[in-house]
Amino acid sequence: MSPVRGRLAGTDALLVVGCLAALGVVCGVLWWLAVDPAEFTKLKGGGAMGEAQLGKRFNADGWYVVLALVPGFVAGLALTWWRSRDPLLTSGLLVVGAAAAAAVMAYVGHLLGPPDPNAVLAAGKVGAHAAVQLGVAAWTAYLAWPIGVLAGALLVLWSKPLEPRG
């Protein structure tokens, strides 16, 4: 690999992964704002959650998927169109960037979300409420980033005419 080509690949890596990680931060904040977490109620012997609150337990996963698929798809379109000099390299970088975005989004949402409900309930009186920490319950929700990003990339790659190698 020539030094110029290596420098261009490094620039592509920095831009693609960096853009997706930054998008993960933004989506983490949006996720925190969108989710109304379920709450435990302190009882004499511990904590409990009613039916309505149990239904809200999966609310966070649903919002995570929506807030990852849509921006991921748009980012996949834009980044593949912008950095499509080497489609194979760009596709690989998109997968790495999508993994970074998924992790960053989950981490930012968790940091901004409610504290540990066990600590809150331990300090509270009977009848006190403590929100569940913001997190992803179903690991499959993390696949929303790569699926969205790669779907956007495929749309761009399939719509471009083939360039002759030579």
Describe the protein.
The protein is mostly helical. The protein has one domain. It has six helices and three strands. It has a three-stranded antiparallel beta sheet with strand order 2-1-3, covered by helices on one side. Helix 1 runs antiparallel to helix 3, helix 3 runs antiparallel to helix 4 and helix 4 runs antiparallel to helix 6. It starts with a helix and ends in a 7-residue tail after the last helix. The model has no long low-confidence stretch (mean pLDDT 90).
Main attributes?
166 residues, mainly alpha, elongated
Provide a concise account of the structure shown.
This protein is mostly helical. Helices cover 67% and strands 7% of the residues.
Strand order of the largest sheet: 2-1-3
Shape: elongated
Largest sheet descriptor: 3 strands, antiparallel
Secondary-structure element series: HEEHHHHEH
The residue fraction in helices comes out at: 55-70%
> How many DSSP H or I helices?
6
Summed up, the domain count is 1
- Uncertain runs with pLDDT below 50, 5 residues or more? none
Derived structural class: mainly alpha
Quaternary status of these chains? single chain
Record field, number of beta strands: 3
Taking all residues together, what is the mean pLDDT?
90
Strand residue content: 5-15%
Distance between the termini: 16 Å
**CA radius of gyration:** 21 Å
